[in-house]
Amino acid sequence: MKAATGELNLTVITLIAIAAVIGFFWFMWPSIKNSISGQWRDINTYSENDQSKVGD
What is the pTM of this model? Predict the structure, then answer.
């Protein structure tokens, strides 16, 4: 019985940890998406003749 209680506690802790990770990414996804989109936009608008971005 004691081992079953330990397994149940471990299962509950695991589920809480998974929920915390999902919650974190759910909350942070808009800023992550905006950052990726902004970086992708900067890459797509980069010109090889534009020397102002060299070394940034």
Answer: 0.55
